[in-house]
Amino acid sequence: MSVSLKPMTTTAFVAVVENVDLSQPVSSSTVAELRSAINRHSILVFRGQTIDNDQHVAFSRNFGALEIHTVKQYLLPDYPEIIALANRGENGTTPIDNGGAYWHSDISYKIKPPMGSLLYSLEVPPDGGDTLYADMYAAYDALDENMKRKLEGLRAIHGYAARFEKMGEGGKRPQLSAEQLAEVPEVNHPIVRTNPETGRKALYINEGFTLGIEGMPMDEGRALLDTLNAHATEPRFIYAHHWRVGDLVFWDNRATMHCATAYDTQYARTMHRTTIQGDTPI
Which of 78, 176, 193, 247 would you call most buried, defined as having the most Cβ atoms within 10 angstroms of its Cβ? Predict the structure, then answer.
């Protein structure tokens, strides 16, 4: 059976996938269709899924090897491929209320950042806790030609330690060990990233992990990054996903960034994320 896609009417970079049951093995032809779809739309939404950890991992592996996150305190026991974003903790994981409440692309601070992420909702609050997504293809396309020329060849500095330290100031983040810090040295990536499969260009910056611009004074580089982030998060580029239990959202980290929103933490919120390894940005 062919995959049925229903693009969002107001946000073409998002499509709802119908007639695919992720609790069952998917065929090679379905995987090929979904690969093509993620290149066209950047975000795929699967509603009403009921999957266990094995099925989540198995489906994710159709698209590549899986990333094991640096912060092991959030990884599910027996399932290191799954990071538990659970405000009550889960099976001994460290609780996390709203870990991504800033614009970012997952793990952009690695030499080979992930291609995609798959987030599955098990418990959601009755209100709030949406995830906002920004279309970085559209954000790049909307830049004027002078800015596009200015960005040619520029590389942003990405780092994790500074962001993690900042978020730990409230005492809600565990300390990173020396070994964990050694896993995530600062790296440089092109500010304009090209999808090797399609040739499409996207802005590849974010407020979470981009610290400056290679070869540019820190204040000047920071100012340019702030300008680009403000542009990329204008309402015209944003999709807000209101979570339901059983949603799985698969997004392309090469072409989007995202931001968690607030909710009443008296309610439980439990999400599982797998992350697909990627290539060195070009």
Answer: 193
Element (H, E) at 136: helix 136-141
**Which residues neighbour 168 within 8 Å (Cβ) at sequence distance 6 or greater?**
174, 175
Q: Which residue in the list 41, 56, 69, 106 is annotated as catalytic?
A: 106
Give the active site residue among 158, 193, 258, 269.
258
Those residues whose C-beta lies under 8 Å from the C-beta of residue 184, and which sit 6 or more positions away, are 70, 109, 110, 159, 160, 161
Token pair, residue 82, equals: 């799954």
The per-residue pLDDT for range 22-53, each reduced to its tens digit, is: 999 999 999 999 999 999 999 999 999 999 99
Distance of CA 106 to the CA centre of its chain: 4
Check whether 166 has a pLDDT greater than 80: no
**Does any domain span residue 194?**
yes
Residue 238 lies in a domain: yes
- Indicate the burial class of 132 (C-beta count within 10 angstroms; 0-12, 13-18, 19 or more): middle
State both tokens at 61.
Answer: 């592996």
Q: Identify the domain containing residue 110 by its residue range.
A: 4-276
pTM: 0.93
Which CATH number fits the domain that encloses residue 14? 3.60.130.10
Q: Is 242 one of the catalytic residues?
A: no
- Mark whether 104 is an active-site residue: yes
Our count of domains for the chain comes to 1
Strands 192-194 and 201-203, bridge-based pairing: antiparallel
- Strand 14-18 with 43-46, pairing: parallel
